[in-house]
Automatic annotation (TrEMBL):
Comp. bias regions, Pro residues: 130-140
Protein origin, superkingdom: Bacteria
Disordered as annotated region, ranges: 79-102, 121-140
Designated name of the protein: Uncharacterized protein
């Protein structure tokens, strides 16, 4: 019995280039249009593996997939927004020239960062999403 968790459905569909292209292109559609278009995509994918799903099941999987994708997009937006915020001064954090440092909350609690590559949150600004941003205007 296959796992119908939206995470697994998404990862199964992204292995099919045609399905992936369609799903990514339609990521900004409202839920009803997305479900109407991609319930067939999901049904075809599972039928190719010998599992024939009822229409209600494919509709539910498409709704869950849309919700999962929008959750991922909101996480991406929040991380991008956080990366664009100015760095906060944290007087408790000290780092030496080798990039080793510690974060002191008090004398009894000390967390050491040794031998790890440090990445400043501002370095994330250089990472760009290759896809165009979603617009708020309705699809044509």
């Amino acid at each position: 019995m296959p796992n119908f968790d939206p995470t697994f459905v998404f990862h199964r569909l992204v292995q099919d280039d045609q399905a992936l292209d369609g799903i990514v292109a339609d990521r900004c559609l409202d839920q009803e249009l997305f479900v109407e278009r991609h319930r067939h995509t999901i049904a075809r994918h599972y039928a190719s593996e010998g599992l024939h799903l009822e229409e209600a099941k494919t509709r539910q999987l498409a709704e869950d997939l849309w919700t999962y994708m929008h959750h991922l997009m909101s996480l991406t937006r929040r991380k991008t927004a956080a990366a664009r915020r100015p760095a906060r001064a944290n007087p408790d954090r000290t780092v030496n020239a080798e990039g080793q440092g510690n974060l002191c909350r008090d004398d009894d609690e000390r967390i050491l960062f040794r031998g790890r590559q440090r990445m400043d949150i501002r370095d994330l600004e250089s990472i760009q999403d290759p896809r165009p941003p979603c617009s708020d205007k309705p699809p044509e």
